Automatic annotation (TrEMBL):
Source lineage: Bacteria, Pseudomonadati, Pseudomonadota, Gammaproteobacteria, Chromatiales
Cofactor note: Binds 1 [4Fe-4S] cluster per subunit.
Organism: Candidatus Nitrosoglobus terrae
Binding site for [4Fe-4S] cluster: 116-117, 199, 202
Official protein name in the record: Adenosine 5'-phosphosulfate reductase
Enzyme Commission designation: 1.8.4.10
Keyword Metal-binding belongs to the record: yes
Phosphoadenosine phosphosulphate reductase domain segment(s): 32-205
Amino acid sequence: MDSLTREDLLASKVEMVSSLLISIEGNYIPTCFACSFGVEDIVLADLICKHAPRIEIFTLDTGRLPQETYDVMQKIKDRYDREIILYFPEPQAVEAYAREYGPNGFYKSTMLRKECCYIRKVEPLRRALSGKKAWISGVRREQSITRKELSLSEWDKEYGLQKFNPLIDWSEDDVWSYIRQFGLPYNALHDKGYASIGCAPCTRAITVGEDIRAGRWWWEDAITKECGLHTKNYSQGRLKAKSAV
C-alpha cells in the first residue's frame, strides 16, 4: 500500500511538471532548458521531449567535464534525436585566467574559484539566455542550504527573464524513481558515489551521511557552494571577487 501511495504521489508530481512545461511552451517561447545532465536534468529532458518539444535544450561545456558526462550527453541526444546546443567559454578569458593563476588556480581561494566559474559557466549562460523569455533549471530545494529559498517560478533580475524550477519540491527518491521507471540513461559516476556532478577537478564522490552537494568544491564552506548560475546578484559578487584576487 505504501508503495502504491508513493507511485501515486510521483505520478501526480509528473503530471504537474508536464502541465507546467506545456504552459511554458505556450506562453514563453522562445524559452530554454539549461541541462547539465545530472539526474534531475535527465528527468526534465525526458519530459520536455515528450510534452514540450519546442523548448530549446542547451548545455554549458566548461572544457573540464568528466568523460562520463559527455557519454550521457550523447545517449540523450541519440535517444530523443534532439539538438543539444553547446555553449563554450570564451577562449581568451580561459587563457588569461590560466596564465595568471595556473590551470588549477581555483583551489587557492573561493574568489578565484568563483572567477573560474564565471568564465566557464556564467558568461556562457548569459549568451545562452540572450533573447529568451524564460529559462528552466533542474534545481531542487533539498539539494543544499543555498537553494532552500528558490521558488517554482520567479523573475530572474540577473538575466531579465522568468525562471522556472519545475522539480523544486521533488525528493531525491522521486528523481531516481522516475529514472528507473522509464529506464533513462544517467551519468555513470552516480554509481560510484557522485551525488552531484560538475567539472571533473571540482567534483568528488561523497560518503554516507554527507550532504548531496558535499562533493562539489569540497574544500569550501557549504554556504559558498554555488557556481553563480542559480545565485542572485552574482555579478556583484564577481566584481568583489576580482578586486580581491
